[in-house]
Amino acid sequence: MRINALPSGNGFNFEISHAPEKSLARAGTISTPHGDIATPAFIPVGTKATVKAVLPETMKELGAQALLSNAYHLYLQPGSDVLDEAGGLARFMNWPGPTFTDSGGFQVLSLGVGFKKVLAMDAQTFRSDDVIAGNKERLAHVDDEGVTFKSHIDGSMHRFTPEISMQVQHQIGADIIFAFDECTTLHNTRKYQEKALERTRAWGIRCLDEHQKLTLERSQKPYQALYGVIQGAQYEDLRKKAATDMAALRSTDPDSPIGFDGFGLGGALDKKTLGTILTWMNEILPAEKPRHLLGIGAPEDLFVGVENGIDTFDCVLASRIARTSAVYTMVGRNNLSNAINRRAFEPIDDECDCYTCANYTKAYLHHVFRGKEMIAATLATIHNERFIVRLVDQMRQALIDGNFADMKSDFLGRYKHRSGQARD
User: pTM of the full predicted structure?
Assistant: First the structure.
């Protein structure tokens, strides 16, 4: 029986080049039809085929190796058929490298319970399967077949199933796509977490079947790698069961069953136990397949991810906080709108090599933020994205050089962090 036999020589591959002993951390390369990704790597988020306020050419110049967009948002606008006709996501937005698309499963959580983009939660709070944020309408309803949801744009009703998610993502044309999953909150009861886990497993089989069918039907298109998504909230046995089940999952084709090309580690997470949760999953998942941590991107959490076996990350946090004047530095976050920056004729960070730090001062950025000028978001986003991309690049080099522990200790010894995760 051949596993992952779709099709031979498809242009997708993962090779580990460095793996420290007695550690889950590793450095390697993901190869896709649109280029390679040296791992570990941070993948900036361009939710609607754009990183807000920044040109795709600038994202390439600041070191981004790939970009991630969201299937739910692109399905609603401009429509996945438009991207298919345009030649795929990368060509549509003039991006020269690999692309990812999230499946839309997270939107089931955010639309269903109204918690918007927050992934980091406290596991020690209330439990309810009817949880919904205050003053919010439940816009999505989940059943075993899929999700019915109301568009946040015009109120129209839509239906996502595993098959539709695969069809949408194949039309969008990203190099790496994700299976449709039900993303729960940490507030859901244990009983519901078990139900959602089984639902995600069953949807995984349906995604594999549809992916296999569409890949054969669209054989003239570049191959798209499909990642399965591991859920299980804060429960050790559920996380381990999900990792075991998804690693073993195959399509139902009796002659040539396929498995997942990689795995996305998803769901709401308790930041205090992030490393432990990642270890539960990554000690089980096959080492030869890449692992992507969905929606996590604060500097301190990236170290936890890398040392516990994560290869790629995505998160909107860097760009979102930039638009509010918050920027990263080697000693922590700085709010450029604060009065202390009014006469600060120096770069955001003396150690940063980004375009913004090379050409502008904190005093100028303070001025344009206070004046609500559009350039403010552009310059701050360039800095933040470069800061995070470069940080993970430095982690990769430290793994190769064998001094990751020293590099981590040096950075965290200086950096004063503020918790917060975000995912569109």
Answer: 0.92
